[in-house]
Request: fold
Amino acid sequence: MLKRLDEFKIGETGLIKKVEGEGRLRRRLFDMGVTPGATVYLRKKAPLGDPLEVTIRGYELTLRKSEACLVLLEVKGVD
Reply:
């Protein structure tokens, strides 16, 4: 099942299948390690859902909701 990162619940893990967007924003996500094939674990969400804190490639990363909605993942499970 594919899901956008901003739709994940705290504790869910997924495998990045596609990164949407164009230009600088897409390049910025790639530079931060948000690339197809990487595993993402959603650690925290701010009270209003923006920003989100994820663990990817062994480090913690904070993303805005507008960035997270561009990342499509295959859900692996809930820890």
Remarks:
- The mean pLDDT is 92.
- The longest strand covers residues 12-19.
- Residues 18 and 72 are 5 Å apart (CA to CA).
